[in-house]
Structures
1.
Amino acid sequence: ENKLLEVDNLQVSFHTYAGEVKAVRGVSFHVNRGEALAIVGESGCGKSVTAQTIMKLIPMPPGKIKKGKVVFDGKEISKYTDRQMEKIRGKEISMIFQDPMTSLNPTMKVGKQIMEGLIKHQKMDKQKAKERAIEMLRLVGIPNPAKRAEQYPHEFSGGMRQRAMIAIALACNPKLLIADEPTTALDVTIQAQIIDLMQELQHKLNTAIIIITHDLGVVADIAQRIAVMYAGVVIESGTVDDIFYRPQHPYTWGLLQSVPRLDVKEDKRLVPIEGTPPDLIAPPKGCPFAARCDHAMKICKEQFPERTEIDDNHYVHCWLQHSMAPNVKNPIIEER
Ligand code: SF4
Ligand code: MG
């Protein structure tokens, strides 16, 4: 089968003193083998919680999967115990984070940290693991890999540390790499280099990637498909072209207008979306974007919009798709 990962109607909550925070409220998507999917949305939209749930990295309690399932390579891993997950993590699914310093061990040489997974999962002997570690450092574009393998994380620059993280993540040749804001902490030039590197490795190793970001601009080159999340739900998903050239959801319009772009006049760039996302302890029963949407109608506040298929693989949840809705000009299509 071509489908590597399937997330089906996933609902994840956190039980807090203030009440039940419904962080993920029925999210569905899939990732094919070797494909890159971007999950895009503002902070707090549930994208990281979704990723951490796939990896079983959220503490339960206070977290809880209320509904839905995660199927990876034919296995329903959302039912796995921590012990079973240990065997998957780092071997079949790896994850990298925004800040390598929080996931790299500051007291262990970088080469050793790459070797750990190889010894644990691939049962490699030390010598072989060491050779592979150096090969991985070379593969991620770190000069003098043999010397670098003997150094500690603090001797690496930010960009080099992120490369080392990628080397650790990919050492066991996982089928899926989940990258949560992998370039957010880096400056723009280094960001582009890391994205290029991930794209190169995706092709070379045929690794599927889920890249999670608040910045749509980052994913245009690397992703084949994009899922846009808002307030714990996917409000629109489609191919990169669907989302960049034919977006249908007002929130996606807003995201696109807040991406710095060179092909649009200065005064049209970087329009922030006004307002804040809803409280996920008491989420609105209608469209979660209604309070911030310029086109909100009466029904938007009353009923969650059903999924409309715009095209193969292009879906949107918005009442503007209803045949009775007024005709609203699509600002993204208009300006091109
Ligand atoms: Fe705006 Fe209504 Fe569409 Fe929500 S459903 S995005 S409020 S028009
Ligand atoms: Mg996050």
2.
Amino acid sequence: SSLKIGLLPGDGIGHEVIPAAKEAIEALGSSIPKPEFVSLNAGFEYFARKGVALPEETVQILKNECDCALFGAVNSPSRKVTGYSSPIVALRKQLDLYANIRPVVSVAENPEDKPDVDLVVVRENTECLYIKDETTTIGPNGREARATRLITERASRRIGKSAFELALNRPRKSNVLSITDGLFRETVRFVPKSIEPVGKYDEVTIAEQLVDSAVYKLFREPQVFDVMVAPNLYGDIISDAAAALVGSLGLIPSINSGDSFVMGEPVHGSAPDITGKGIANPIASIRSAALMLHTLGYGDAASRIDRAVNQVIREGQYLTPDLGGSAKTDEVTKEILKRI
Ligand code: NAI
Ligand code: MG
């Protein structure tokens, strides 16, 4: 059998880092089913040429043929462009990839040492302010702009379950931090009682924190955090903040996952400031590939990639400029491939 993987580099450095992730998967050899890659269109560059940001063909191939996918990044125009809407937001919706999972882990100097920062942000991926329901009216104070924030019980329950599952399967720390409000908070709290078998999550403890103090604490004491579950917008902010703790956005992977599909995606954007220079850090994409494989049940293959990446970071000789080095994307990738 084979593993069919959709590749959606998108825009900008997506074209430079997704090929690196592909090579890392190929370097695994027979420890995973033979990978078969299919290149798929999506993004602003494609929109500029063809007038559509996410072609229906891409969605159909992902749904009907692929086992999983890797997404690079897309440009979002800063002003509204008629007819354009973000393909990543649409993909999360159409494939129902409701959990955005972002591990943030620092690399300890010695492989035996525990990393300082070792946490995972579990971000709800389908609702909150990101449903983009905005209106303007004229009121006594001039123009009034409003956005609707949608939190549903169903989405809060399933993201809560994802967080509890993760918390159960990680080496233990003392806290699950749950940053929540209203329905989200109640629903996540109720997950242990609402999902069979009752008692499954008994070892997971919950600590609640408001988003502002959580970010403060994240910077002061990152080591206390283990799994952080949050609605979409808070989760976005917390995970970018957490990324700053370990050096560079170019290091942080994520997956968008649902019940039947998983899509790896580096946390960073399309980085127009460095596009075409060959210096984008490929590590976030390579780690996203590992995370994707881990989720599909290929834990050993994923660990091989992660160990190779950590070795290269630790050795410090082949680092891209975002980490203070002078290596090119290709050189870093080559060193990682050797170690896989
Ligand atoms: P960005 O993540 O693209 O870049 C922020 C800074 O980090 C830049 O200085 C960039 O050079 C650097 N950087 C990012 N990834 C890097 C890597 N792999 N290696 C080395 N340096 C790296 O965020 P920015 O500049 O705010 O957004 C640029 C474009 O990307 C915008 O159009 C934005 O809408 C889009 N974007 C897309 C995302 C997605 O597709 N999911 C997520 C975030 C931004
Ligand atoms: Mg973001």
3.
Amino acid sequence: MADDKVLIFDTTLRDGEQSPGVALNVEEKLEIARALERMRVDFIEAGFPASSPGDFESVTAIAREVRGSVIAGLARAVQNDVDSCWEAVKHAAQPRIHVFLSSSDIQIMHQLEKGREEVLEMARTQVARAAKYCSDVEFSPMDATRSEPAYVYQMLTECIDAGATTVNIPDTVGYAIPEEFAQFIRNIQENVPNIHKARISVHCHNDLGLATANSLAAVQVGVRQVETCVNGIGERAGNASLEEVVMAIKTRPDFFHLGTNIDTTQIHRTSRLVSQLTGMSVQPNKAVVGANSFRHQSGIHQHGVTKMRQTFEIMDPKDIGHPRGTVLVLNKNSGRHGLKARLDELGYEVTNQELDHLFGAFKELADKKGEIDDRDLDALVSGERRSSRTSTSWTCCRSPAATTSSPRRRSASSALTARWRRRPRRAPVPWTRHTRR
Ligand code: KIV
Ligand code: ZN
């Protein structure tokens, strides 16, 4: 593997589906898996086959159909889980069995009600069982960040000896702080003698809003597999979000000097698909895929982006496949530049004097209404035209040549104005937009 690539292990279909209230059927999971493959995700964790017959069926169907990504299934370190995981993923072009078991005392004692030795034995035995089926085995010591480090080192050492080819370090309860997490990874690199035989991965939860930061801190110290979910969904506050991790690496090559295999132009549509099928809406201010990610509201920002998009945007909306791109949100904070730019986009050509009038009316309306949309602008322009009937500079779709730039045009425009003047006051207004040439 090239060391300058961070591999993306997407668990939207497993940890993501563990989001409270989410349940996907086989067809929905297949649809998301196809989108993930299209996005060129390296690994798709398709589900937890032993957890239900439906999940077994989904993982099997994905393994049969999706050929471009490695297909992983999750298994507890118990024989039945490992066997059933293999039965489901064995159809994949590139299968992976992902075995996990708690390593923290709090979970070992209070959840598993076992001792450390017994747990170690379970991990070793089931990783070895998985390795007999499949050459690609991942092992995760669950709750690693709240475990005694020496115990984690021992567990990882024994699991790598038993055949684990990837060791994943989960921050299961989102407890870690970036600097501390990076140091934990360094300690693993230094204290697990056979670590060079396995790839290190991280799986960070977002309970403190640090999942992406923790994942990137791990990348900085050499981790080359990151586990993510689209839109950051997952248990409780969710997992590190795919789009944040991938776009951070893409946006800051000067800092990371790394890349991913992801086709980032698929991010926006995949985010929408996942949101639609899971029923989990994306908060408007969500990084990268939130509805406001490329919308600018303040007059100062609008002035900047109309001159040069990069003044207030660090990502190109095209890079994530955003269909609309940069948007100026018009409201009471907007300035003349923002209003003028939107009027231009809508096809209205206005003089400075007309803009002055419109801007006053626009501010008044914005104070009352909040956001001003395109239909409001149409109405403002119509109102301005009605109130300044002598104006000759509005262009009209019925006479695109009518501008004030030449005597002939001026007279055509005056004729139109005269005609309108003769209209009864309530006559429908013939003005509409036309595309600016
Ligand atoms: O959060 C976690 O620890 C997990 C494991 C199964 C990897 O999801
Ligand atoms: Zn998890």
4.
Amino acid sequence: MVKVGVLALQGAVREHVTCLQAPDVEVIVVKKIEQLSELDGLVLPGGESTTMRRLIDKYEFLEPLKAFAASGKPVFGTCAGLILMAKDIVGQNEGHLSLMNMTVERNAFGRQRESFEADLMVTDVGDDVRAVFIRAPLIKEVGENVEIISKFNDEIVAAREGRFLACSFHPELTDDHRFHQYFVKMVAQAKLEGVKSV
Ligand code: GLN
């Protein structure tokens, strides 16, 4: 049994909870800092990254979230969650949680393509993973330890760096739960290996 939290300050929280639900997973809706200590892994949902950051600051979540990630516990960010995880954001002086060595561009598909769906090949997840893009960011550059796990039209839309996983789309808005199952496997593996051996 693993305990996976969904940060519930803003955004598509309920959808992630539904996707994570499985006999070997206890899903926890995280509204308080104290709840982080009981988790084996954490999901940062999509929504709006500047709003989410404001709420993270308001409820003093920034340092506890960084400490959670630094302890080696897996983190999975979708869309705005991916933006929170990037070290660099185009046009901004600094990242938010700055967990993954990558540069992201917000709202990178422009107005014409505010939202759309596609079936994507995602390494170790599937070759027809349903992806919903909504005012989605793109990963413009990755550092050497970052594995690119999916591309759409030659642009990077999902990546993994050790125990951190991020995608620019919303797997939680589909009935395809494979991306979440993949993250749960990462969480179970990390729990088995222990948090300090990162
Ligand atoms: N465009 C949003 C942002 O910059 C992200 C959109 C989403 O999470 N669907 O935060």
